[in-house]
């Protein structure tokens, strides 16, 4: 990196950088100043030179800056070029005032910051500094009306009371206005005997209790204005005795009596309340804070104060608060004016001879009898108490930050009272009573459960029982004799389910239960009987079972038992003296018969060896006494297999049943079928094997068939009758059926095309069902068959997605095939709602090229156009369409076919919402080119799903938007010069050239503004076929002066138009002349004296002001601010078109007069204090040329430092230099305007 061109020994790098930036900022400041001068003096023809000048200066500066190699400011060539281009663009934009609003904005800012203009003396002054309303209107007069001195006790109407617990007095205010207090005398009337005494307060005492009150706090705005200079005092008088107080005498510091407003203050002791706890004989808890449920509590409220009293108290049970209010609390036979309402806040409340005993505080007691019917914490709290005078003591706010329910401080003050209500326990035997005694085995004990209702917190519980023994010789409890006196037992329990251990027979009776806080209740069962039964015994009697055909086929054992059921008897069966089988038998009764029937022949031994009952277990028996033997020959038997005992079949089918056979084959089996009252026997011979499948004849009637085995005959010819279980066959009376269910009472439904429809099914039979249905399409074409499985008789559906007729052709349930053709509901029709559709509404603007492709009539850029479409379906509709912009390569305006166009931009999607049958799509015309509108689909209130629009065939509409024509001046902003009354075809007159683009012929409308006349006119030139047109005819209608010609709009051969705001200026010159803008001869200081100049600017004007000659170079109009009074005369004028200087033979002279002045009270502020009925004089001093007219106002105070004008008066035809008015109204009097013969001034002007 190279060092800076200027060595840092002379100037460091930072300073060099600062100087370089400072030079660039200076260039910009000078540039903005010159730009401001150009626009301020309306030198628009200098804008081009300005732009070129600063483009060169800024370009050279930025080009040479890198040569100095200043750090951070050494730019690359590319950066330098970019900076030069940026500065040049900025300069051009600033100079183009007619097309770029920034210049005008800067000019306006400049005028606001530099608001100075030339005066008649050729000095720049501010217009607002020349004439200021406050320099010509000054002074004010304030009139105050002094108020009357009054005194009033308790001006706010408050209530006061004395605290019994302290000696603090009550401070009762007295308001005194317009004077200072000197002495106060009060009446104090005793409540008991109505006697009174006088209380005197001296000035020295009153000074300690006096407080000054500002006038803003006296109430209304009117009172505040009246008391602005009044002295208002509040004296807080300390009163320490109860009684009635009234002002007797009040005097001020001058010992003058003050007017007293009658007002009485009744001062009593503050109301108070306390709550005391009660005692209840039904409470057995024994603790002061604990109670038992069901008890009666009688807390007592004690209220002290002036009746009638009002109290609010709260009762909380387990945190749930309930508030109570008691009104009109008073002693018996009490009489008081307070019973009719509160005392009046103003005026007297007592007159001599009347009693005041009603104002004494009374103590009243109220008992609150409450049944304790809910367990938990109970708390009573006093919230507030109020006496008849309105004194309110709110305890809830005083102690709001404390735990009011359990606060010891509140309890000490008697403001709360609480206790805990406990539940009463109860106890009973769960599973023992005299009718259901407890049986004890000899030497054993039993645990009898006790049910105790209570919690651990309420325990431990003390249970007292009585034990009555039984006579040991008769332990069954029926006729026992008492052998000993009853004994008392005590049991301590902690939880709700403990057991009482019983090891001796007798009666155990619960006498009482007691918890930690409350006595409990003994519920039934309250007694338990315990017995000790004898050990169980059994006797057995064996008897053989004989058959006439085969002999012994088994043995019967008759069992007789004693003991406590149930019994458990264990025995063994020994086959052929070697196979041992051990069995046991549970017997619920004391007698039982057991049969042994072996299925196979052989030698069998039966012996019983062990007995148990409910109390005694495993008592060994003598096997020799309980044993028998026999040799058995087996008789044939037959029975149905367990799974064949119950079965089902359909009407007309045969049932198949499995039969198990035992004995010596072959067998002959006899059975019968029973249906209703009809029995049919059947014989099956020569059955071999132990399992045979029996097939019944066809069962043709519905219902239950009973198949009974009657007898079986074995191979030995022994026939045996059978009594085995019968088989039951359930024959279906009705075959399964299937039908479609109705939807809204119809066997058809309409749905949305493409969506699925559920057709309900109604099924009869046994689940599951197999259903086959066919579908016939709407056109009667091909059919398709489908089979589905269903598992519920109701609530099943067939889901379909095709339109047509659906018929059920076959149905089967779990057992039988069914019939679907017998029902009229075996067919269901499904159809679709018509899809919404749209079409283009035919019009002259649409040309249909194909069925779904049309071309709309061409429009011009910016014109409004719409495409009308017709919608069919259920409104409201939603139309989806796309708009695609295709840039036009030229201005031919021809529309390409749908297939040949190429997309120029990404399509923009729209969703048009329409509520009626017809809708309009707004066509895009803001940019020229070709547009393609593709209608993608439509949805309505039925077809709301946008995904269903895929099947819609798009509709395409194309439209060409033509570019609007252009018209501009070849040299915009140029000033053309012409002479007055010159020929149009004069070659010396330069034509105004116009450039057109578009399709010829053109018609252009020009707006010509005649600045001298302040009027405008329009000129239309038609049938222009040249692209560049020379305009000369415009000069013919121009008079002297400056004319601004602006292109209003242009129309081309297609009928398209465009508005334009380019302009040129035409100066029509003549010999320079000057005329006054107004025929007025007299002006005032601060006004502008203006003249109109004709000729070629700039002009040189010479004039005299008060004998001093001045020369000014100006443009038209020539205007100067009259900064002082005198005579202003124009002497000569010259323009820049010639060197002719016109000396005016008739001088243009204007007389400038001074602005008049009005002063109130010689321009000062005067305050006059008057009494009511007096008047004050207000003097207005006038300066100027008579006659005068002036306006003044009267204002009143409307708040702090705020005044409101209430009156405005105007005085006219005053020929003297002073004027006086007399007033008795309070307020501020000020002048707001003054006018003399020539001029006027106002406040704010």
TrEMBL record:
Pfam families on file: Ig-like_POM152, Ig-like_Pom152_1, Ig-like_Pom152_9, Ig_Pom152, TMD_POM152
Membrane-spanning segments: 48-68, 80-103
UniProt keyword annotations, A-Z: Membrane, Transmembrane, Transmembrane helix
InterPro entries in UniProt: Ig-like_POM152 (IPR056541), Ig-like_POM152_1st (IPR056542), Ig-like_POM152_9th (IPR056543), Ig_POM152 (IPR056544), Pom152 (IPR037701), TMD_POM152 (IPR056540)
Annotated coiled-coil segments of the chain: none
Annotated ranges, domain Nucleoporin POM152 ninth Ig-like: 1072-1151
Protein name: Nucleoporin
Keyword Transferase (UniProt): no
Residue ranges of domain Nucleoporin POM152 Ig-like in the record: 424-528, 735-822
Protein origin, superkingdom: Eukaryota
Keyword Hydrolase: no
Start and end residues of each Nucleoporin POM152 first Ig-like domain: 150-266
PANTHER family: NUCLEOPORIN POM152 (PTHR28206)
Residue stretches making up the Nucleoporin POM152 immunoglobulin-like domain: 533-634, 857-962
Domain Nucleoporin POM152 N-terminal transmembrane residue range list: 12-96
